[in-house]
Structures are given as C-alpha cells and as structure tokens.
Amino acid sequence: METILSIENLSVEYTVGKKIISAVRNVSLTLNKGDSLSIVGESGCGKSTLGLSMLNLLPKEARITGGKIIFHNQDILRFDKKEMQKIRGGKIGIVFQDPLSSLNPVIKILQQIRETLKIHRRDYSEEKIGKLLEAVQLNDTKRIKNSYPHQLSGGMRQRIMIAIAIASDPEILIADEPTTSLDVTIQKEILELIKKLIRELNLTVIFITHNFGIVSDLCNKIAVMYAGEIVEGGGISEILKNPRHPYTKALLSAIPKKDNLVKFNTIPGSVSDLASLPSGCKFNPRCPRKIAKCVQEDPQLECKENRFLRCFNP
Amino acid sequence: MLNDFILKTVNLNKSFRAEKNFFSSKTSGIKAVDNVSIKLKNGDVMGIAGESGSGKTTLAKIVSGLLDYDSGEVFINDRELKNYSRYELSKKVQMIFQDPFSSLNPKLSIGTAITEAIKTQNQNLSEKAIEILNMVGMAPDTMQKYPHQFSGGQRQRIAIARALASKPEIIIADEPVSSLDISVQAQIMNLFLDLKKTLGLSYIIISHDLNLLSAVSDNIAIMQNGKIIEYGQSEKIMDSPENPYTQRLISSILTINV
To answer: Domain A3-91+170-309 - what CATH class?
Structure first.
C-alpha cells in the first residue's frame, strides 16, 4: 500500500500567558491511500490541533516543537507560505464543525466556490460549479448558487463546505467534527454523503470526532487520543470490539445506551491540566488499573499485531 | 388523586410573529407550540426530543414561567401558573440551560451567584451555599471563584447548584449535557439521577440524544413543528415507534457497529 501521509513524532505547544501547554506530544501516524482514519478523544486531547497542524493553520500562539509531517515524501512543515497554499485546499481539503463561521457571510455561494477553484487553477465555469453542487446532493443549484450563507440551512451549508473542500480534487479530506452542530437526521445524511464521496472520489479521509458512533461505519482505522498523546490505535473493528487501553474502555462504556438504567458509567476525576501534567502515564490519576510503574515511567506507544497501545497494565 | 401530576399543560399555544413581509402588511406567525398537552407525574422524568425549531425550548420556557403563552393552561400542583408570584414560582420550577457559561454572570463569584438565589429563602447564606455546592460535588473553595475558572462540566454543576438553591420541585433542563464530553455527560446525568433520589425532584429533560433520554426518562415526548407527535413510555417509543418521524429519528441514531 502506498503511504500518502505520515506524521512522525509531532509535538505542538501553545503559549498562554506564562503557561506553556503541550497540546500534542510525540504523535506518529501513517495514512495509506484509501484509508479513513478517525481521531477520537474528548475536548482538549489535541485532536483538532493535530488536524490544524497538517494544514499549517495553527493559531499564532501555537508552536510546532518537533517532528515531521511527510506528504508524498516531502516534509510540509518546511514549506513556505506559497507552497503550503498549494497543499491547503488543493491536495488536502478540510471541513470544519461550524459551516456558518467558515463561509463568508457577504459573498454568494457561487463566488465562494469559484474562489477555491481559481486559486488552485481549476475550471471555474458555472457548469463545473453546478456539477460540484450536484455531487454534494444539492439539486436546486440555481437558487443555491445565488444565495448567501444565511439563506441556507445548516445541513445545506455543510454540503457547500464539502463541495468547496472537494473542489480541487484533493487526495486527503480532513473533517473536523463535521456533523456536531447538526440535527441527528441531517447528521446521518451528511455522513452518508461523505461515505459516498470517499467511495466515488477515492478519497483518503481523516475524521476528527468525539463520537464513536460516527466512525464505526465510516472509518477503517482509529486513533484514540488523551491529553495530547495517542493512547491506542489500530483497525477500527478490533479496537471497538476489544478495547485494551483503560481510557478507551471507559470512554466506550460512558456512551449512553438506550436501556433504562440506574447509573451511567463515568470516568472519575477530570482531564489533567495540560500545563502541569502528571508524571508517568498521563491517564494514571483516573485509571482503575494503575500500578506503581504507571506513576514512575512514561509508557511508550507499542505496536503488537497491528495494534498500538500505550499502557503498562492493560 | 389531585396531586398526581406536578406539572400539566392543557392545549397550550404560543406563536411568534415573524417580521413583516416587505411587500405586504400581513404579518405571518410561526406556531412554536401548537396545542400541547403534557402531564408530568410527581417524581417522574419526562424526556422531550425533536429537531431544532420544533418548539422544545419554547415549551420549556413557558412551563418555567420565563415566557408568556397565547392560550391554554399550565398547572403546577393543580394551581395555574398565572396565579403564582415570581417568588413562589422560583420555589417550584427551575430551568437549566445548555450553555452554563452564558447562564452564569461572569462578574459574580460563584458564592455571590448562589447566595443571591438563596437570599429569597432567608437562611444562613454562605453555609447553605457551601452545602448546596457539596451536593453537586463542588468543593467549598468554589465560592470565591468566577465562572471562567471552571470547565464546562463544572460550570454545569454550578448552574445546577444555583437552580437547587431555591429548593425547587421541578427541574427543566434544556439540552443540559449536549455541549459536554461523553464522560462528563455521564457525570452530570448521574448527578441528576442522584438528586432525583435524594431530593425527590421531577424533571423535564430536553435532548436530541434519544439514547440518553430513554436511559433516564419514564416517558418521552417527540415534538415536530410545535406539536407533540408521539408520546409514551420510553421503552415503547424506542422499541416500537409509530409515527414515521419518530421512526426516522430513531433510525438516525448512530450506534457502534463492529
């Protein structure tokens, strides 16, 4: 299989006031052509920071302190502004959670899609734009092209974002919580659309989400993040069927099931302050399987039979 | 029995007037709550689900006394809502919102926010406030801090503490956990369940997460376009929904298939 993107030991820090927050630590990932990888974790685990660093879109408070992001044998972290622009929105497309804040409110949809096509030197005729809208199942193309974002519903706006993301035939699509702000029925439709596009356009996808339900029938690989590190990773069905890291287990069991119950399963405590992380395993203060070693040493992400695990006592 | 239902609405209606159309002087109304009758039994949990704009929040605001209604009746303990004074109503119903950050005053310390709510009760203020914070699992030093110093889950706990301060009998929670992480969601829902047991509270919980609703509710109401289109025991709604829209909602629930 052809490796299309690989991240090697990436670390990202934010400087907030006098504090240094290490949002991503030593993350390594490999993405083969045709993969759909989900990065799952709770707020503050670094999943969005990871997504943004792949496009060099990190805010100015952030600093990449180490590592490489290799896209087609080139380290894109060394790219200058111009080179990066070709990749961003060109070879790698992105869809964010909130389509209203990612679309320009005072520009008509037609113009917004055309802009992307122009920048990446593609055919920007109305016909092509019409086709793009049809690809994302927006059929009333005439009306939509002449609409402003506020005249469309949330689901339609997200479809427009997807149309823009796929406009320049990207190889990789990064979707950062693309359905979180939508109603459940619309969420399902958008996921079906993304599934269809993956198939038809042969896209490689990185799906960033906190929802295991979304990824289970969309992705083939999963990486679970906690406090800036990947704690478990591998094939999605193996991990969901048989999670080994105590955090993955706890997270899966906290999902509400439909049966009436007396108590929800929770994870005791809360996520450690990223500015002052505990020694040893970052999950140890909340872990039910903690042993002495977990406090003394940092567990490494180890690979066994295609599964990655960062735990001394699974 | 008279007091069987702690909260009841009969044919409740509320419309919002949309802006005047540019071309005509006609004003069009949007029926946000359309002929809604619900009954909440003492000690029960009622779940309300439905898509955005279906009227869930409007209904919740009406029964909390935060919004006027056009016609119909709302009863709390067999007495009409309109006959309650604000003070009396605050001791019956309290509402909790989705975003605890915007419902807490950023300039008030938590201690002040909660003692304000207790003041109406004329008790030993800070002692009582600490006791309430303790009930929701927050330490006494919370009193001196401000909302921005807490995480989303902690802020929701504080919002719940403030609601509890006036010793209500009914809690109306509008999407109380939808902005929180899964593991934090579970903690907050457990808190609701605990308080139900210890304080004998009744709840109306609004959520788009049907799995979560069915796990905690005795009954579930499904709303669409201001109407309740299906109502029943939660197991029945989940296992054999009759209305096509309810069926669609349930089939849209994402489950983990492996």
So the answer is: alpha beta
